[in-house]
Every structure is written in structure tokens, then in C-alpha cells.
Amino acid sequence: MYRRFGKRIFDIGVSLLLFICLIPILLVVWVVIRSALGSPVLFRQVRPGKDSRMFSLCKFRTMSDERDAAGQVLSDEMRLGRVGKFLRSTSIDELPELWNVLCGHMSLVGPRPLLPQYLDRYTPHQARRMDSKPGITGWAQVNGRNAIDWESRFEMDVWYVDHVSLLLDLKILILTLVCVLRREGIAAEGCVTMEEFRGSKPDAIDPRREN
Hints:
Structural class: mainly alpha
Strand content: 5-15%
Largest sheet: 2 strands, antiparallel
Oligomer: single chain
Radius of gyration: 18 Å
Distance between the termini: 30 Å
Order of helices and strands: HHEEHHHEEHH
Number of helices: 7
């Protein structure tokens, strides 16, 4: 019952309440980003949602458009200034995704929406993460976030899809608040966030999952 009806009602109620309460913070962040990084303030990117249906993910912009002498865009590390680092470390850059939740593209809790090019790189087992709406936070995010390897992350995503419940969602939201306050798992070692997923290593794939 919760999976089919309750989760959507829960998403709308909580995200609408949060959106209204956070309006002052959203306005302040908007002004800061506009002053520090210019326009646009919001970063939009197409991501796959439930059943691989594409939608436009909305986040606060965290990187500048700086280029080198040859006109090439600088690396993420060089374009992520103090403002961007603060927004990411506090997860404030994720707040506009509440709009995606209200629109029905996302859920408060679920597997994080990743890049479209990853779709063809999932094993059949990993692809089951697409059976659920993507979330602002998820089971993998409160168990290591970007500091864990891809295989572990996908395993947690699939586990969540199989165990969705109101109590689990409440637990994940509470743990998310703890992780944000502690600023844990923001980036993988040597990366601004997470290295690119290029497909699972053969020894990381359980052959039974391919049947």
C-alpha cells in the first residue's frame, strides 16, 4: 500500500512543507550564487528516472565557467570554488530537487539519479535500481555516499527497491540529516564527487544475476 500510494502522498506532504519553510534560505543562496558565479543560478541536467524515463534534474549551480587560455573548460576541481564547496559539503545544492519531487519526477528517498550514459553499463541486476523513482537521498547515501565503490552503491540501491517502507524512508531521512551535519562521504578519494562508472568489473558480477 505504501509503495503504490502512500509514498507519493508522503513525498508531496513533506517536500511541500520543506519547500515553504526553506524559502528564506533558498532566496539567500540564490543571491549568493548570482553574486559569486553569475547566471544561471540553477544547474539543469537530463537524468533517467523510474523505468529510465528522462527528466530535467534541478540543482543549485556550484561551479564556474572558467576556461584556460585555449578556451577549454577547466577541470571540475579548478572550477569548484569556496561557494561551491560549501554548497556541496552542506548538501544545500540539492534543495531545488524538492521541485522535482513535487513534480513527480523524483521521491524524497530512492536511488540517486545518475547519468544517462550509465544505463547501458548496468548489469541486469544493477538495472533494477531503475524500478524505483530516484531520490534526493537514499540507502547508499547514508551508508557511505560518494566514498563507497559503485558495486556496493548499486547493491544498496537494489536492496532499497526490494524493501521500500515508510519506516525505512523515515530512518533514511533521519540518517541523512546526521550525515549532512557531519559532512560525511561528500567525495570519493581523489575526486570532487565520484569517479565515472565505466561498468562493473567481471569479478564483481555474480553470474547468477545474469540469468
